[in-house]
């Protein structure tokens, strides 16, 4: 518990100024979801590896930190200082370096079971009400248009193109609605489908509000 407390404190410090939707609150939810999925699946995983990966997964992400190499070195030193075994350190770093959606654009990496669960939990955070808000928040912060019917969704093939993005609404089709079929566990898959249905209902309402019935100018005096 002492090691986990230090991991939580480190995460909070690293992510306390995040304005991309990948802050400490996100890390907490990913950790909670990871724990719930592992319990539901009766997964034989190292709890420290599971929760450390969940809490720390965005502390070295290029969406969040300006210097990824420095962030990686600092995290490696931290894991060593708190007394994790070499195997635990290696597995945690492998998971958080290979679990992202953008990483899969250049080839899917086979994650250990703990990594698959954390990956599922992180992807659930991109769905449902939380996913809608985080998508809008991130898109607005990166000057992505909210919606433009003339801009069609893109099938991304590389990380650079993916990072540029297109529109907030297109992101639902470019990534978010692809996630349920990418889930590693049945527990996460079921929850992903539930969240996707909510998002589909939201989009139906959005399109209705985006394009209201035009004003009949002939009725105006």
Automatic annotation (TrEMBL):
Residue ranges of every copy of the HD domain listed in the record: 23-127
UniProt xrefs under CDD domains: HDc
Protein name (database record): Metal-dependent phosphohydrolase
Domain of life: Bacteria
A Gene Ontology molecular function term of the record: hydrolase activity
UniProt keyword annotations, A-Z: Hydrolase
Organism encoding this protein: Enterococcus canintestini
Gene3D superfamilies, A to Z: 1.20.58.1910, HD-domain/PDEase-like
